[in-house]
Amino acid sequence: MRTTVGIIGAGPAGLLLARLLHNASVDSVVLESRDRAYVERRQRAGILEQGTADVLREAGAGARMDREGLRHDGIELRFDGKRHRVDFPALTGGRSVMVYAQTEVCKDLITLQLAEGGPLLFEAEALAVEDAGTDAPRVRFRHEGREDVLECEYVVGCDGFWGVARKAIPAELVQVFERTYPFGWLGILADVPPSHDELVYARHDRGFALLSMRSPSVSRLYLQVPDGTDAEAWSDEAIWDELERRFETADDWRLERGPITQKSVTPMRSSVHEPMRHGRLFLAGDAAHIVPPTGAKGLNLAVGDVVTFARALAHQQETGSPELLDTYSETCLRRVWQAERFSYDMTTLLHRAPGATGFEDRLQLARLERIASSRAAETDLAEGYTGFPFG
Fold first, then answer.
1. 107 catalytic per annotation
2. Most buried of 25, 175, 199, 304 (most Cβ within 10 A)?
């Protein structure tokens, strides 16, 4: 097989890139190791930044998002029994976010790709990226029981931290920056309408909690738990009891309970792989960087990466200059490190570390009080949450 851009991975990054290339009349082939049903049901992110929502609309993939997604104009911070709302549009010149699950983004993009785009091969396992440093990279893959080769002008690895793309960059050229947190998130899906119309981020002496949602009838909630926690060790009643404690306020707000349909534990870590490009191989999304979910940045960073690549390739085709492709890594990493900084700030602001001292507790509360009382501090949070500019 031969194509202009070989894309490894049919998560939101790979699928959106295929759509952007299709709209620019650039051919591509997408290889995805899992089957379609798995891709369309794996629960991941649910918050789309303003820029991400705008890109989906411009790509022709935003119609259902605009019908069914939930626009949010703020978040609520809870601490010390108090509630403070951060008003995004008032602080950012009108920017907001959209609650629309990654599963739904993937469904929309898969439908478009199969109807209009180039080949999208499910259960096609990428085995290796070869000749990445040359002008003719290749992806060796297995599909329908036999090995094949995809010959490309460019390869974009959207295949995650454990994928083959990042392994194709020589180790002596790579720097990896990492941080692992000593806690995780116990996340649940519950068939109950959300107890608040916006996301609630709660800092509590017992640990962090987040109230989120997937739809007007499905709630998504999280509890900070020790690293290594088994989700099944928590009964449904114990989860609801703990959420109720951590969301407690001084007023009459109440947490609504309902049947829990899914529970899992997400580890918390940060990782950045530099560089994000080697020759004709480009890394995007989790293949290049991971952020803790506190800042809702993972999917949005992946979108920024593929938008940057698509624009750089279009620039080369229009002008003959490879300048933007050559600076892809540097361009993306500026945004990546701002998102890492924001996610770190949000994580350390709201989570109580094991063995935290009274001094550290008071510092967290002081930081939260500063946000609640200073428009400048509040604006910095709102700008970070609604998203950093692409490129």
1. no
2. 304
Q: Which residue among the candidates 181, 273, 293, 328 is catalytic per the annotation?
A: 293
Read off the pTM.
0.95
Percent composition of the chain: helix, strand, coil (DSSP 3-state, to 5): 40, 30, 30
Q: What is the pLDDT of residues 159-211, one digit of tens each?
A: 999 999 999 999 999 999 999 999 999 999 999 999 999 999 999 999 999 99
Quote the distance between the C-alpha of residue 79 and its chain's center: 26
Structure tokens at 21: 């290339």
Catalytic, out of 100, 154, 201, 328: 201
170 among known catalytic residues: no
Q: How far is CA 12 from CA 101, 299, 321, in A?
A: 11, 7, 28
Rg (alpha carbons) of the chain, rounded to whole number: 21
State the catalytic residue, choosing from 12, 22, 72, 196: 72
| Sheet with strand 5-8: strands edge to edge | 120-121, 28-31, 5-8, 154-157, 281-283, 277-278
Question: For this structure, is 293 an active site residue?
Answer: yes
Task: Judge residue 307's burial from the number of C-beta atoms within 10 Å of its C-beta, 0-12 exposed, 13-18 middle, 19 or more buried.
Answer: buried
- Whole-angstrom distance, CA of residue 307 vs CA of residue 284: 10
Q: Is 297 a catalytic residue?
A: yes
User: Three-class SS string for 181-243?
Assistant: EEEEEEEEEECCCCCCCCEEEEECCCCCEEEEEEECCEEEEEEEEECCCCHHHCCHHHHHHHH
Q: Count of residues for the chain? A: 391
Which residue in 289, 297, 328, 351 is the catalytic one? 297
Catalytic (active site) residue 263: no
Residues 6+ apart with CB under 8 A from 204: 78, 79, 245, 246, 248, 352
Mean pLDDT of 291-304: 95
